[in-house]
Structure formats: structure tokens, C-alpha cells
Design brief:
The protein is an alpha/beta fold. 46% of the residues lie in helices and 16% in strands. The strands form two sheets. The protein has a six-stranded mixed sheet with strand order 8-7-2-1-9-10, with helices on both faces. It has a four-stranded antiparallel sheet with strand order 4-5-3-6.
Length: 293
Amino acid sequence: MKAYVFPGQGSQFPGMGKELYGSNKRAKSLFKKANEILGFNITKVMFSGSADDLKATAVTQPAVFLHSVITATCMDDFAPEMTAGHSLGEFSALVAAGALDFEDGLRLVAVRADAMQQACEAVPGTMAAVMGLDFKTIEEICSGIDGVVVPANYNSPGQLVISGENEAIDLACAKLKEAGAKRALKLPVGGAFHSPLMAPAAERLAGAIGRTFFHEPFCPVYQNVDALPTMDPAKIRENLLKQLTSPVRWAQTVENMIADGATSFTEVGPGKVLAGLIKKIAPEGAIEIESVG
């Protein structure tokens, strides 16, 4: 079975989408529509902006979404039998599977990005990457710390990102190193994504999700919150809202997709981060993995 996966925030790069815009009429039309929907010229930032210009959450998230979804739309052989996305990428996966219209997906991403940016400014927090320690040990150490610090991204065996309050993250990093972690490094991010500190953003996103129509997708979508497939619009809506304050169970998602019959993974969008993670998760040589975009 063919699985298509979509990257999240952090995979952006200067010039993203410019070549596609210039070579494909369908892509050009969608990019122009995106400028109208967002109310600012995001294509100018994507095509001509610097790396710093692309870092702002309100720009990054729509930019990555657009690059991913428009790339998929313009692929002649795009035929997913299952989809998934990492964090923001889940919105791309839902559009690719037909659960969300392009316009509605972009509007939700714009609300999500703005809400997350405001939450970051209102409640300071950060994230840290932990390498070389099993998930259970990390979970136990985080649960024993006074303050908000939780697992945020289960990326691959031996690689987990934690999220929370600044002081709690510092304390967790020290304890994790003592417990044998090869690395426990704070990341250059603007806030504590996928943690309880994102609750204000979830409240804002709830209204937008409630006003949005979700179709039944034409193939299963594996969602971040539970790593399980669903084609139920009500369940998709519920999980999408929980995602902001819950961990991204990416390693578990890929394992479940393989168990359910995935024989190939195609990463669609900027970068090759997910392809690299899948290589660490999948049995060596058993799965075809490629990146497009």
C-alpha cells in the first residue's frame, strides 16, 4: 500500500515553491488563491524572502502547508492509500485525503498559526531534543519534575522532543543527561508546542474547526494524537483539536502504517526530515522511501 506523509514546521527554506509556481498553471492558480485567502502576499515571502522572513509562525505554517498540498495536487501519480502528517503536516494530509477542501485547510492553518504565535508570546516556553534514551525513561523523568514539561514529539526510537516551561525544560535536560541521554538540547523555537501551554491556542482553534465542514476522506488518515487510522469526520475534528496540546506520536504512527500494510512512503513537501525518521523506524530494506518537493 502507498503511504503519503507531510512535513511540519521547520522544513521551510528560501525559494520554496517558486519553481512549481513558474512551471505549473494549476500551482500558479492555487498560490494566487492563497494570497487572496490569507490577505497578504505569502508567495513573495516564500519565493524571495530570507530564512529569517520564513521563521515567523504566521508565515511558516501556511508556507509549508501550501508547498506540500500544491506539490501533491500537481503530481500525476498521486494516489495515496493512507496518509499522515507531522504536526502541521496533519492538515496537509487531511487535504490530500479529501477530508478538507484546500481553502478550508488553509484558513484553519492560518488561524492555528496565529493562535500559536499569540500563545507563545503570552506564555513563555520552549522545547528540547532528547537523543539516546528510551521513551519510558523520558516520560518518567518528565512526570517527576515540578512544573510543565511533557513529551511532545515521539519522532523515532531514541529521538524524542520534550516541551514546556523554560525552567522545567532546563531541569529535565539535566536529569535526562544524568540518566544517560546522549544529548538533551534546547531547540531554537518560539514556544512550548504540543504541551498544556498551548491551551489558549486550542481554544481559538476550536471555534474555527467548529465552523469548518469535514468530508469523509477517500483513504484512512493516521492522526498524531492516537497514531491510529480514521475516516470518521467527527473523530478527525476531535483529534485535530486535541493535537495542539498533545504529543505527536510519529514513531507509533509509522509503525502502525507498516503493520497495516504500507509498503512505500512518499514524503510530499519541503525537506526530507520525515523520510529520515521513517528510515530509523521501518525495518531496514523492507520499505520504499522517497521525498518529493
